């Protein structure tokens, strides 16, 4: 055991002298950033032990060095005020605690800078895994975690450097489009092409849903033109601003495929301003699910993503430690507004 005379408060410089390493290395170890500095676990343990013997106030991050595993698991999520992401967070917490893991969750608002900052903070707490949910740049997160020796998993949106668990966006969108087309034909007495509303053009899920939307039209013998696509963000504000440019067909008959309940809020407000509520509302469906949607509009079909199955698949990967690159697609289910 190494002892120093306690005539003053111990500093990292004293610890550096006692352990024979640089002050910056001592600081990195005591702040939990030793892996990023490529400092060995053996040296980190030695410095931490000496710091404790000298009565140095070792922080939470450094104290985790005494354990083989931290039992901490992190998740970033883009939104809280959305039924889908809210249910992901709730189920994730439940399943993590069942395994004796402590979940850390933070909302990053689809902001790449916030995502990276959040992950860096999680790494300083020595998380065992980072679950990147709906991340805008999942591969950057995977690279950052890889440098720290931490595993990552992509949820909702896929990446190319870590395993991913997502919904079958193509299959779900095709199923929903087919349903809206049938509903439109029944209500309007003729086949019509639908209008796609909401999403981001560089977003994998939007691209796959748009592909399913187009293929369903093609199989029905219908054409989807550029004027039928309104993609400029998910938010209600963006949707209303985009739909301000919408011009209905000459016969006034149209239907809507809405790419999120977030976007649906903007669509319902837009329809209300046009006086198209109740039975005057056009045939429509939403790629998302919320039990309160029937209160927002008349006869809205929905796609419900299978959150329990998605997280079962995610924790199967975590439990097994199998980090091979793969993309697991979980089929969603159709929730119909009214029977045809």
From TrEMBL:
The UniProt record lists the HTH lacI-type domain at 10-67
Answer yes or no on keyword Repressor.
yes
Coiled-coil annotated residue ranges, if any: none
Keyword Repressor belongs to the record: yes
> InterPro entries, from UniProt?
Cro/C1-type_HTH (IPR001387), HTH_LacI (IPR000843), Lambda_DNA-bd_dom_sf (IPR010982), Peripla_BP_I (IPR028082), SBP_2_dom (IPR025997)
What Pfam families does the annotation carry?
A: LacI, Peripla_BP_4
Q: Where is the HTH cro/C1-type domain?
A: 1-33
Among SMART domains, the record links this protein to: HTH_LACI
Q: CDD domains from the xrefs?
A: HTH_LacI, PBP1_FruR
One example of a Gene Ontology biological process annotation: transmembrane transport
One example of the protein's molecular function in GO is: DNA-binding transcription factor activity
Protein name as it appears in the record: Ribitol operon repressor
Organism, as annotated: Buttiauxella brennerae ATCC 51605
């Amino acid at each position: 055991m190494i002892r120093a005379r306690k005539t003053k408060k111990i500093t990292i410089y004293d610890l550096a002298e006692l352990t024979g390493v640089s002050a910056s290395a001592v600081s990195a170890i005591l702040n939990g950033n030793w892996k990023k500095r490529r400092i060995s676990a053996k040296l980190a343990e030695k410095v931490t032990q000496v710091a404790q013997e000298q009565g140095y106030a070792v922080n939470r991050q450094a104290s985790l060095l005494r354990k083989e595993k931290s039992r901490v698991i992190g998740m970033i999520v883009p939104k809280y005020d959305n039924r889908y992401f809210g249910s992901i967070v709730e189920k994730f917490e439940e399943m993590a605690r069942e395994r004796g893991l402590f979940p850390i969750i933070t909302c990053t608002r689809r902001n790449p800078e916030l995502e990276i900052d959040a992950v860096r903070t999680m790494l300083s707490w020595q998380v065992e895994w980072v679950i990147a949910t709906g991340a805008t740049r999942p591969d950057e997160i995977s690279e950052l975690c890889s440098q720290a020796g931490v595993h990552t998993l992509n949820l909702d949106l896929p990446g190319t450097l870590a395993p991913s668990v997502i919904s079958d966006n193509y299959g779900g969108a095709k199923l929903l489009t087919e349903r809206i087309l049938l509903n439109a034909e029944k209500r309007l007495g003729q086949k019509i092409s639908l209008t796609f509303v909401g999403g981001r053009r560089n977003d994998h899920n939007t691209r796959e849903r748009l592909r399913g939307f187009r293929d369903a039209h093609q199989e029905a013998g219908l054409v989807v033109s550029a004027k039928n696509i309104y993609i400029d963000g998910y938010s209600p504000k963006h949707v209303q601003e985009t739909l301000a440019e919408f011009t209905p067909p000459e016969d006034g008959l149209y239907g809507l495929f809405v790419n999120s309940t977030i976007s649906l809020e903007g669509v319902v407000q837009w329809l209300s301003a046009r006086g198209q509520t109740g039975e005057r509302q056009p045939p429509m469906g939403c790629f998302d699910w919320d039990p309160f949607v029937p209160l927002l509009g008349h006869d809205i079909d929905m796609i419900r993503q299978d959150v329990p199955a998605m997280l079962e698949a995610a924790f199967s990967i975590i439990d097994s430690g199998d980090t091979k690159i793969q993309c697991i697609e979980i089929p969603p289910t159709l929730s119909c507004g009214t029977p045809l």
